[in-house]
Amino acid sequence: MMEKAKTLDLASFDDAAFYERMENATREASMRPMQILSETFGIVSTAIEFVSYLLILLAAPGLWWATLIIIAVSIPSAIINFIYRRKNFNYMRRRSKDRRQMDYYSGLLTNKDMVKEIRLFDLADVFIGRYMEVFRNYFRGLRKLILSESGWHVAIGMVSGVTNLVFYILIARQVFTGGIMLGDYTLYTGAIASVANCVSMLISASGTIYEGTLFIDNLITFMDEPVTIAPSGALTAPRRVQKGAGHTIVFDHVSFRYPKMDRDVISDVTFTINPGETLALVGLNGAGKTTLIKLLTRLYDPTGGRILLDGHDLREYDLGDLYGSFGIIFQDFGKYAVSVEENIRFGDINRKDGDPFEAARQASASDYIERLPDGYNTHLMRIFEPTGAELSVGQWQKLAVARAFYADSEILVLDEPTASLDAIAEQEIFSQFDRLRGEGQSSKTTIFVSHRLSSATIASQVIVLENGRLIERGTHKELMALGGKYAELFNTQAQRYLSPEDDI
């Protein structure tokens, strides 16, 4: 499942139905195959035992038909078993949402990052109440299934018990009439009980295997999840991204809407980024800036238009090669429970000659890292290590920036790279980007999203998005002279740094 998960489209994770398929698959994936294997061996051993006792009954005078009666009486039990295995499977599949809700509510109360807010806002009882409400609805249906099946088995068990009693009476009668010896009574009644038990075990094991195959069907459904983000099928071999050279990026009338949405979040956007340029994406929350980044890095494909890299559609490139050309920081960057050095090296796990220490210095992270108990070998978070270091949000963000520097990619993509940093740290980061471009790396292309518009003043061009549309484009000076949306946003932020005396 992990191998499958690494190939899935990001769009799958935006689909509630996908989470239902994934939950149904993961819930049983580790248990059912071994259970089926175990029950299969159990059936073999039970069948051998059944044949042994069957031979004993066939040797008994006038009891050869007893096995047929026992099997006939067990047929309703087998039918009920298979019917309720199917009902149980359908119920579990249908109620995946309930289990996910229960996991979510219980997870909130045990989530380290959420515990502070839940405690201060006194939300624990709210989520416990919601958990119990979902649990009661979920368990009500499950209990109904269990009671209904148990009722049938009790009734069938009574019929089976009466049948065995009749057999015991018949055997006892033969003892009294001298047809068999007294010791044979124990042998034959034991054989009848064992045959009945074997038949019951065979029915139960077959039902378990049948139910297991139904649940494995969930796994097969998950493994068949379609993958669309792949090199174009029209190519005999995917293109390779040229390394060590500048890249031209073209958005050609690009539009995009998320699955099952009825409106575009990116609408007819066209612009070009030349090698070595720095592009700033500006706009209010929800304008489409992060979505544009996801389209550029081909986590999604446009639903309209196309994106070109060096004159070729992104869909023509090898995915691994394409992803390797980006050094990227998302605003919801990853926090990994491994050592500091590993966190930095995750920026490019295939790079052998990289210097994580230099990357940390460039990201202004080396000072606090060197103060940690074990420096770069310090494990982060206390998920696995009781002495793991807990970093602040700003320190984590510097570590994420260090990953981008470590990648040493031709295209740097920074989505709110300094949102959690103070003004001084932010200036140090952007100054470092300037130094990189000034040290013979003018071919590097940098694309960044930032709500702090002071950082946009260093950009070669600024693009302003509003409701998914490109409404302004130019340099900082050109857009300020234009007096449009960018100028309004910039002046609004600038006013926050002016005191009333400065306005006079």
Detailed description of the structure:
This protein has two domains: 2-223, ABC transporter transmembrane region fold, CATH 1.20.1560.10; 249-503, Rossmann fold, CATH 3.40.50.300. Helix 2 runs antiparallel to helix 8 (182-223), helix 4 (66-94) runs antiparallel to helix 7 (124-176) and helix 5 (96-109) packs across helix 7 (124-176). A six-stranded mixed sheet has the order 6-7-8-3-9-10. The chain has a four-stranded antiparallel sheet with strand order 2-1-4-5, covered by helices on one side. It has helices at residues 2-5, 16-29, 32-59, 66-94, 96-109, 115-120, 124-176, 182-223, 289-296, 319-324, 340-345, 356-362, 366-370, 393-407, 423-438, 476-482, 485-496, 500-503, and strands at 249-256, 266-273, 278-282, 304-309, 312-313, 326-329, 411-415, 445-449, 461-466, 469-474. It is elongated, with a radius of gyration of 34 Å. By secondary structure, it is an alpha/beta fold. 55% of the residues lie in helices and 11% in strands. The protein has 18 helices and ten strands.
Distinctive features:
single chain; about 500 residues; alpha/beta; ABC transporter transmembrane region fold; Rossmann fold; 2 domains; six-stranded mixed β-sheet; 18 helices
**SSE pattern, N- to C-terminal:** HHHHHHHHEEEHEEHEHHHHEHEEEHHH
Task: Tell me the major beta sheet.
Answer: 6 strands, mixed
The average pLDDT value, as a whole number, equals 84
The total count of helices amounts to 18
Name the CATH homologous superfamily of the largest domain.
Answer: P-loop containing nucleotide triphosphate hydrolases
User: In CATH terms, what is the fold-level topology of the largest domain?
Assistant: Rossmann fold
CATH architecture assignment name of the largest domain? 3-Layer(aba) Sandwich
Strand order of the largest sheet: 6-7-8-3-9-10
